[in-house]
Batch of 2 targets.
Target 1
Amino acid sequence: MERDEQTTPLWPATVLIPYRPPLAENLIADVCVVGAGIAGLSVAYQLAAWGRRVVVVDAGQVGGGETGRTTGHLTTVPDDSCVRVERIHGAAGARLAAASHARAIDEIERIVSRERIDCGFERLDGYLFPAPAEPAGKLEAEFGAALRSGIEGVERVSRAPLESFDTGPAIRFPRQAQFHPLRYLAGLAEAVERLGGRIYGESRAVGVEGGSTALVRLRSGHTVTAAAAVVAADTPFNDRLAVHTKQASYRTYAIAAQVHAGAVPRGLYWDTDEPFHYARLQTLADATEVLIVGGEDHKTGQDDDSAWRFSRLEEWARVRFPSMGRVARRWSGQILTSADGLAFIGRNPGDADNVFIVTGDCGRGLTHGTIAGLLLPSLIAGEEHRWAALYEPGRIHARSFGKWAGENLNAAAQYADLLKPGEISSPDQLAPGTGALMRRGLAQVAVYRAPDGTIKEFSARCPHLGGTVCWNSAEKTWDCPAHGSRFDTDGCVLNGPAASDLKPAKGEAPVRRA
C-alpha cells in the first residue's frame, strides 16, 4: 500500500492499461463511440460482436475517466432505493429495472468468462442495514419494494454478518457481485480490438452532428463519419439543456485501508443513511486484503470540505470494521443522478435519430453502462427493445417533479456567485498548489499558483451556461456548481457538460511566472 494521504484512486496502482495513440486521420465506420469507460467500451464490444465496424475515441485513455474512480460494486439494487423507483416508475417499471441490472451483472460474468478477463469477478451477498436511529418502517418498506421488484432471493435477516458490529435487522440480496473495474476495462478493450474495433486515446471529440450520416469532430481537426454516433463520455457535451436539467452532478468519496485476511466477511455492505455509506473487500495482486469504503456525496462544486468527508467515512468505517488499518488511499469521483433514479440511454432528445447518449449513472454506472451495451445496438439497428422506454432520455415522470424542481432551483441559485466578492485580492495570497477566485472589475478570475510558483489565470465562467467555477482542493480542479463541469489547473475540461476549456482571463496571458 502507498503512504497515507494519497488522493488518487486505488485501481491505477494495480493495473497498467496499454496506451492508445490519438487518431491521426479521418475515418469512416458503422458506429463511432465517444468515451472509453465502462459505457463506451460495453457498447463498442457488443457492436463489434454484431460485426459492426466500430471506432472509439476518448479525450484521455481507456479507463482514465470516472470508471477508474468507482468502487467496483455490482448490484441489482438502485441507489435511489427500491421504494422510490417503484413510486416513480410503477411496479412494472421497477421489475424491469431490477431485471435489467441483474442481466447486466450476468453479462459481465459472461464476458469475463468468454474473454478470460482476470478482474477478480466474484458473486457474493449484499446487505442493507439501517442507519443509527432510523425508523424501523423504512427498512421494512424497502424490503417490500425489493420483493415486488422481483430481485431474486431477497430476504430479511436478523443482522449483517459483521461479528464486530451489530447492524440490527438487515436485508440480504444474494448473487450481487464485485470486480476490479480497470482490469475488466483492460480486457474489454482488448476484446473490442480483437473483434475488429479501433480505439484511439488523446482524441477529444468537440462536436457530434447527426443526419443522413453522423459526424464526430475532434479537436485535432480529424473526423469520424459513421452511420450512428454514441456519446458515452460520462455526461453528454453535445446537449445543453434537454438532459442536463433532468440530472445533477455529485462528488462521492472513497477510502481504502488494509485489513487482516479473514477479519471482514466478504460481501457488499451499505446503509440507509442520507448520504449513504457502503463497503466491500478487495484482494490485491499480492494477496493483501483492502477494505474500500465510500459515500458522503454532495453536489459538485458546492462544498470544498473533502477533509471532513474523508474523516466522516473513516469514522463510520472504524465503528463497523474496528480491525481496519491505516487509511492508505482516498479519492473522489463524479456521479450523475437523474431526477427519477434511472440512467438515460437512447436517442439524444431533439437530435437526429442516429445520435445516442449514455448518461445519468445514478451511482450504478457499472451496470448502467453494461445495460447500454445490451440496449443500444438494438436501437441503432432500428429494432425494438423491452428496456427502451424505461431508459428513454426524453422521458418525463410527473412523480419525479419534486426532485427535478429542487435540483434546478439549486442550480439556478449558483448564479448568485457572479455577484460575490473575490476570495483573494492578489495572487500573492495563494500558497503553492492552491487556487481561489479573484475579482477583477466586473469579472471573476480563477487563479491557480502551481508548486513552482507559476500563476495561471482563467475566466471563472463555465463555458457551458456561465456558472462560476469553484476550487476543489482535494482534486486540484475547478468545478462548476451549476451543472458539474470540471476543469484542470490548465483550464482544460475534464467533465462535461462543458464542451470547451476555460477561457484565459481578460487582459492576462493564461500562464505567467510569479
Note: The mean pLDDT is 90.
Target 2
Amino acid sequence: MTIRSLAAVLLAASLASATLLAQRPATLLETLPGGTPPDSVFIEDLTWAEARDLVRAGWTTVIIGTAGTEQKGPHMVDGEHKFVMTYAADRIARAMGKTLVAPVVTYVPEGSWDPPMGHMGKPGTITLPEDRFVELLVSAGRSLKAGGFTRIMFLGESGGNRTGMRSAAEALNKIWAGTGATAHWIDDYYTKSHADQDVFAAKLLGVAPGQVGNHANILDTSELMFVAPQHIRNDRLVGNDYENNGVSGNNQSKASPQIGRELLQIKLDNALAQIRRQVSGAEPPVPALPAPQGGGRGGNRPPPPPGPHRPTFETAPASRTPTKAPDTVFIDELTWEETRDALKAGRRTVIIPTGGTEKNGYHMVLGKHNFVVSHAANLMARRLGNALVAPVIQYVPEGDPDRQVPGAISLPSPAYDQLLDAAARSLQAHGFTDILFIGDSGGNQGGMTAVANALTAEWKDRGVRVYALTDYYNVGRDHYRAWMLAAFGYGDDIVGSHAGISDTSQMLHVHPAGIRRDRIMAWGGAKDSGVTGDPVRATAEIGRMGIEFKVNAALNQFQTLKNPPPQRGRGGN
C-alpha cells in the first residue's frame, strides 16, 4: 500500500468515526445549573446560564454606563471616559449588591460631523446623534428586561449623554408601565459630583470653583491617573500650553492618583445616595433635568473649520512637542494629537469591529464576539500597517430585544445601521479614506453591507470608500471548516454552527478566562445550551488557525475591492 493510499484510508476511517459521533444524543437533559460564576459584575464576563442563575437569586439590577470616545487634550487618551466608567460601574455595582453591569457604551453624542463641531473638531472623536443614542439605550434596556432584570440604571461620564439617558429612561418607563420594571437616571453621578469636585479642587488649588476648568483638567486627569495611569502621557502634563489644545483649566500638571481616588469617591457616594433615594421611593426614578453645575465638562467648542469637507487632521492645531505614540492601533488608547499625526503620516485606514453580547453555551461568556473581534481587528490593522481601530461595537442585532435570554442584548436594524453610519461619518470627518467594517456574528453582516454601499455611493467624489468585509465571517468560516475536515476529519455536524469547536477554540486562544473548562460538555450538555457541535474537541491552536482564516479572508477581500484585478476579455471590436 502506498503512502498516499494509506493516508486516504486513514482519512476515510477518521471521517467514518466522526460521522458515528456526529449525532446529537437524544438523552441530553433539558437544562443544567450554570455553575459558579467568577468574581465579576460585568455581563460580558458571564455565561448566559450564570446570568440566569444570578437573576433567579435576586440579581435583578443592571447598570448601563455611558462613556464616550472624545478628545481629552494632548495628555490623555480618547477612551478616558470608558476607563473611568468601567471602574466606577464596578465599584457602584459591588456596593449596591446583587447588581450587574452591561457593556460600557462608547458611542455617544460628541458634537456634529459636518461641519465638525464640539469635540468632533479633534481627530479620533466619534459621535452618535442623540436620537440614535436614545434608541440604542432603549433597545439595551428592553433586552435586559426580557432577560429578567427589573431595574435598569443609567449612569453617564459625559455631559452630552445626560438628556439622552433621561429620554431613554422615560421611554422605557412608559413602555413598562404596570410590569414592575423601572428605568432610573442617576444624574448625581455627573452633575452634582462635578459641582462637588470643583469645590474640592478649588480648595486644593487655592482658586475659585469657576477657575478649575471643565475638561481634561486636574479632575479628569487625576481620575485617569488613578484607574489607568498607562493612558496618561506624563511628558505632556505641561499645563494649557497652546491655544485650542482641548484642555479647559491650566492645572492638569498638578493631578495625582491620590486626588483621583478622592474625586472618584465623590462620584460613587453621590451615585449611591441617589440610587438609594430612588429605590426607596423618596425620589422619582427620572428626576427633573437640572442645568449642569460648575460648568460641566463639555470641553472646548471651537468654531467649524473653513469648508465642511476639510478633514480635522488638517485643521487641528499643531502641538509644541512631538508626539510619542505607544505601540497600539486602538483609537481609544491614543490622544487626539497622536491620531492626528498618524493621519498625517498616511494611516488613513480605520477598522470598525462589530461583536455582540449573546448566549454562547454553558461554557462560554456572553461577550465572546467582542473579545474575538477585538483581537482580530488588532491583527488586521498591524498587518495593513496603515490602519487604526475604532472601539468595538458590542450592541448588534441579536433578534427581538423583547425576547432575549439573561444578559443578551440586541440592537436590531435600522438602529444598528444608524450606529455604523454615525461611526463611519465621524471617522471620515477626521480624514480616514478607507473605512472597514468587520463583523464576528452572522446577524451583523447585512447592516454592514447596506451602510457601506450607501456611504460609498454618497462619497464617490471625495475619495472615501466604506468596505463591508463580509468575507471575514463567510469565507473565513468556510476555509476554517474545510481545514478542520482535512486536518481532523471534523464534519459540519461535529464543528457545529454556534458555540461549538470553532467558537470555543477561538476563545481558548484569545481570552481563555472566558471559557469555563469544567462546563465544556459534549453537544453543550443540555438541550437549552444554544450549542451546535461538540466543543469538547476545541483547542487553542485550532482557535489560532480559525482567526488566521478570518483575518486573511478579510484582508484579501479588502485588497481585491480596493485594487480589483484587470478585466480579461478579447478586447477586439
Note: Residues 39-299 form a domain with the Rossmann fold fold (CATH 3.40.50.10310).
